[in-house]
Design a protein that fits this description.
single chain, mainly alpha, 7 helices, 0% strand, transport, Mitochondrial pyruvate carrier
Length: 114
Amino acid sequence: MSAFKKFTDSIFTKKTLKYVFTTHFWGPVSNFGIPVAAMLDLKKDPDLISGPMTGSLIIYSLVFMRYSLAVKPQNYLLFGCHFVNELAQLAQGFRWTKHHFSDNKLEGAEAEKK
């Protein structure tokens, strides 16, 4: 038996295939679009960031990180998805806060008034 066949047999067991065809797997996989989009948006202009939406997504990911560990069996893939999203949304929130409330922006607004 070749090493490749042993490897594929160990990966494609009935238990693994059964898991892949559940919402326990596909829910988190489809959810990964949210943190991927947030990470891609880190390079865009901070004017495009919605502060309320970013705050909502921060809370959403915190709640679902907790939920992913409360369900039985624990869903570590869902936890990972929301952990990555939490980091990305916190970065977006920091960018939004810095852009809207930094001293440089306030000084620029005051200079425009004069």
